[in-house]
Amino acid sequence: MIKSKIRKYHAPVWDEPLVMQMGQSGRRGSIAPKTESKIADTVGNALDLLPAGMKRANPLNLPELSEFEVQRHYLHLSQQTLGMMGISLFGTCTMKYNPRVNERIVYQPFVAEMHPHQDPETMQGILEVVNRFDHLLRKLSGLDKFVFQAGGGADAAYTQACMTRAYHASRGELEQRNEIITTAQAHPCNPATAAAAGFKIITLPLEDDGFPSVEALKAVVSNRTAALMVNNPDDIGIYNPHIKEWVKIVHDAGGLCFYDHANFNGVMTRIRAADIGFDACMYMLHKTFGGPKGGGGPAVGAYGCNEKLIPFLAGPTVETNADGSFYLKEGGENSVGRIREFLGNIPTVIRAYSWTRSMGIEGLRDAANISVLANNYMEKRLLEIPGITKGMPDVKGRRLEMTRYSLGELTADTGVSCFDVQNRMTDYGVDAYWLSHEPWFIPEPFTPEAGELWSVEDIDYWIDVLETVCNEARTNPELVKTSPHNQVVHKQNSTNLSDPAKWATTWRAYKRKYGVTN
Amino acid sequence: MQKPGVLKIGLLINPIAGMGGKVGLHGTDDSLAERAKELGAKSASTERAARAIKALLPQGEKISFYAPSKAMGADLLQSFNIDCQKIYETDSLKTSSEDTKAAALAFQAQGVDLILFAGGDGTARDIFSVVGEAIPILGIPAGVKMRSGVFANYPEEAAEIILDAIASIESSKELEFANTEILDLTDSELDYSQSHYFGSARTFSAPSKITSPKVNSNASSDVALKELAKHLSSELAKDRLYFFGPGRSAKLILNELGLTDSGHSLAGVDALFDGELIGEDLDESQILELISSHSKAAEPFIFLGVIGGQGFLLGRGNQQLSHQVMSRIGADNAFVLASASKMTGTVPTRLYVDFEDALSKKLFPDFIQVHVAKNRTLVCKVVSSGFVPNSVKAS
């Protein structure tokens, strides 16, 4: 039953040309004053001071606009931003607010103006933050050392694949141990990075109870097993209760065990990777620890491991001198070498450290509890909406921080797909939901996740919008199928999306492919 | 829909169904039946129907049976001492598609609750052409190809579905039905990888016991599978006899070797030795002969595909790969390849093995790896006929 008053919404539509197509030849934002004659007489032509090799032969093809036009253009673009403007329950990612105070910290000169080649003695504060955050994550995971070089979760998974290679090579077993085992519900970065590191991939299927069987694992574990790479709970919210046995089976066969804990939200302070027996784990700082979602830029995959694997870590690592000061130690002879340049995205490590310290252990526990509670609250309301069913409905027990649902019944009744509903919800100022990772064994899937950020009013409103759209699907399916109608852009014709002759991601490519001259 | 505890079942057996399988005929529609008999094929559908009826015996008194005479149903029921009402007289052994349609019409006149038939896609189509969605249809799998979504995985499971229905009626629960696809090859061609849609029939809603309709192959558009096929084609040993099962996936390897022309049948089993195709569209006895005549070479090896959407590895459309053949080759020498999307569309993922000649003889381990790309496998649980399918649920 819809609880809220559904508000009117319409996004601004400016329909402006590209910035390259605006303005007039010769128009300028600001004009530098002419060189005074006395200076010119003394110095000569300023251009002559430049080495010939540095002079540009042809002028840059830049847009020519006044300062006001530029400001207006970017203001309009910001108004047309599609993400995080409304309520965003984008599952598997845990949408979190990034406190502004943390942005203020990382904009300070002692962070923003650091140079990575500075002498470590002059960056003791930064190294201390890295060291402290390393210790915080050790406490939360039970592992023995964390590094922050990896530029995201997949990069951290790749770190693990490289560490696995280095570990078995050091024991002379690499040629024999060339198989990595994962599951159909592990994030695709696990098999992908393991394959990139040269391993064969064995994927275990889910059984009726929502996770692969111990028997299936036993059937494929052997002296060829290099490692197990899994997440738990997986991103349909189901926790594999046999995970300790899994780790034991793989360890007994001589393999390593890696815990993909990219989304740690539902189990923070509840379970620790090392207690279950894992050799290593990974946390994505933007999913759990308050870092910003970066669109591929400023992410960090925090990678932690136990003593056994420390010799293989990528250098440089931050170490403590006897006097309490810090130094950088390059990787030893068994190190996998660099995963990324320098120490990784230090500003995001600082944000995450600040976030974690402000939360405290009690705060983290509350956040985990709230995220599970919010998900189960949502589940109760969502399943009351006709046409929505729970993914793997026969699996008993409560889901953790997220649940995957199916709109399959709604689609069968109305022809409206999960994509159509996703589009239409944005017409109400709600951000598009997450559907599902591959493979899609749940028809017409969607996966909301509330985390600890969203208030009960926000969660209710999101559900109300979804219910409104489901009602529309029954009364006016065409309205939903042709949506969005109130958004910055309307339904796109996707036929050319995979045609390289048609797409253009730069102005130069656009001119070439569409025959534009300017 | 009926008074409590009584289910009216129309039983129909297509006695010639499935006869083409082992002799490599891909079906027994029309004239193929005669050819199958000439080649020494036996009627398997009666035996398969018997397995289902036997499993129904404990609740036999709760069912009213209706059946055509003789081999089309009445004889079998009589052998179990089950009374039935004869609804149609057939002409002894020579039954045809017309008999099936006439019997279906008679079932409809009797107002049966369910038509239980033993046959293949052709039989399903014939019944469907008469009753449409009006009467639920449940198939005891007994054909060569069974692409339609009305067949139980095994004869015993057809019985289980009916027993569940009786239990539901007795506890006053509504029976659950679902619409499903009637699929078959077209009459004119034998393009094994594509099915043609003939309509939407009603059957029981029992997803774990009823084989899903076949999904058309996407093997030729799966680049990862193509790369795997290319890799495999470069690794074939000279001194080894290789077999290639029906379907697009296994044939991709032959494509890479340039050994398939446009007329090459996807439906058959082919053999390769020393880089040359030495047999095409082989039947069971020809396969066994080749294995014997190459006994001095390395152990024979087979590449097998999986029927999309249905999960059948053996026993559907490849009956020439009998238990006898497969035990000569050995499970260790069977390499299963399929596109990842074919294997991951359903949970749980199962591979079915249904040997007519070897109930309860287990050839494959409980789990095997299906290759979906070079260096990439999916682990699948194998369910073999005769190995109580209930154990699947228990695990």
Which ranges of chain A are low-confidence, i.e. pLDDT below 50, for 5 or more consecutive residues?
Answer: none
Radius of gyration of chain B: 21 Å
The helix fraction of chain A, in percent, is 25-40%
Gyration radius of chain A, in Å: 27 Å
If you consult CATH, what is the topology of the largest domain in chain A? Aspartate Aminotransferase, domain 2
| Structural class computed from helices and strand pairing of chain B | alpha/beta
Q: How many domain units of chain A? A: 2
Largest interface: A-B, 24 and 21 residues
CATH superfamily of the largest domain in chain B: Probable inorganic polyphosphate/atp-NAD kinase, domain 1
CATH architecture classification of the largest domain in chain A: 3-Layer(aba) Sandwich
Tell me what you see in this structure.
The complex is a heterodimer of chains A (518) and B (395). Chain A has 518 residues and is α/β, with parallel strands linked by helices. Chain A has 17 helices and 12 strands. Chain A has helices at residues 37-43, 67-79, 100-106, 109-112, 124-141, 153-170, 189-196, 214-220, 243-252, 273-276, 285-288, 346-382, 408-414, 418-426, 456-475, 477-481, 507-514, and strands spanning 145-147, 179-183, 200-204, 225-230, 256-260, 280-284, 301-305, 317-320, 326-329, 389-390, 405-406, 445-446. Chain B is of the alpha/beta class. Chain B has 12 helices and 16 strands. Chain B has a 9-stranded mixed beta sheet, with helices on both faces. Classes of the chains: A alpha/beta (518), B alpha/beta (395). The A-B interface holds A 184, 191, 195, 199-208, 212-213, 215-216, 219-220, 392, 438-441 and B 340-341, 344-349, 365-367, 369, 375-381, 393, 395.
